Fold these 2 entries.
Entry 1:
Amino acid sequence: MNTEAEIKQPKNSWKPEGHSVVASVKNLKKSFGEQKVLDGVSLDLYESENLVILGRSGTGKSVLIKCMVGLIRPDEGEVTILEYDVNTLTPDKLNEMRQLVGFSFQSSALYDSMTVRDNLAFPLKRNLKMYDRKEQDELIVTALQDVGLENTIGKMPAELSGGMKKRIGIARTLILKPKIMLYDEPTAGLDPITSTEINELILKVREKYKTSSIIITHDISCARHTSDRVIALVGGHNKPEKTFQELEHTDDPDLAPFFKY
């Protein structure tokens, strides 16, 4: 396992020139009762980019990505994912779009009553209508190898550590070969060593699967090691995006507290 210092660092000068936009959010607004959570958020995600959305707990990070995949309907604004206009999609078209987007939940969202194998087989049967066990096992073993856990195939979720559950959750998402990955607090609740392993895995997934990714986090180490660009959510708004290295030396009073480590 690599140490934290050995993780491949994103380039300071990463720029979107030459990369097409694969997801776009424009002036997104969402309130729950009197609480205004998102108040005009806009962003673009580019091909092959790891975009980190940084913010404190309760700033609307998870609400944002749930709006992006149609789990929550915004009050105002536009969301386009891989040329799909998310807010206008029929249920069938929404499911079609979601098959192209991998969602790694903060809780891993594994089915406790299923083995690891059956957890990974579930999306193959539900989404691809793949019922041949040999075909399933070929894809399941490959996905588990990609996250370094092929020996867990017969285990139950209760037998796995928190970090292992995160990896299995990512494997279950990768088995459908998504074009976009959404990671919701991928290192939350993990010890520093396991967090470093998850950061490495995020970079490995991008390299092997050529994914574009949005990484929701309040973990400054995760942001530092996985991001090409960083957008901070403050007060329902997004601050102008920059590289981590540019933000690291900011004197913006809303952002500076994140970088006092």
Note: Residues 147 and 167 are 6 Å apart (CA to CA).
Entry 2:
Amino acid sequence: MNINHHLDEATLVSYAAGAMSQSMALVVACHISMCDVCRERVCSTEAIGGMLLESLEPVAISDDSLKNLLERLDEEPLLQVSNTAKRIPSDQKDYVPGPLNNFIGNSLNNINWKCILPGIHYYDLSCKTERGGVSRLLRISPGKSMLLHTHEGNELTLILRGSLTDEIGCFTVGDIADLDSDIEHQPIVDGDEDCICLVATDAPLQFKTLLGKIVQPITGF
């Protein structure tokens, strides 16, 4: 697997600090479970954060702080990432990254897809990732494209199967598009198989077409 598109530095820092929504963190965790480069960068960022914490003066905390922390940890699914990036066989079409496996099981073929438009389907994960943000799986047929849009906030898109191309470049399995409000794009599936991707946003998309504005209230994009 040849990964060419990686996470921005600001995204890595936010993830390592635990400062992003769980929806966004899910996509990051899935990518770094597949990508040696970004996983190593996360480890380095966490090491720097640890050194900064050690340099701080200790402060008093309440007696029930540990209890409160443990209760919060129990409220949400754990985003588990293995110590080594997963090597995916080139002929394997049903691979599910470990962190996503906690939410949908171990197959991409047993998903209850909902249709947005002909050739474009989605599965909402937002109710499963409770701590803010919106996360969805998208399945787009060959030759089909998403509607032209920009972003109010940030968008992360991880390719799990197939490929797509937009104004930024070509994205294949393991690649991640780390986009902000400066980007306007219209991804199109350029291969001969469905493209399945994991998408998270922290603000609504800004569609540029009338059709996009019509379907947005229905789908929640």
Note: Residues 137 and 198 are 5 Å apart (CA to CA).
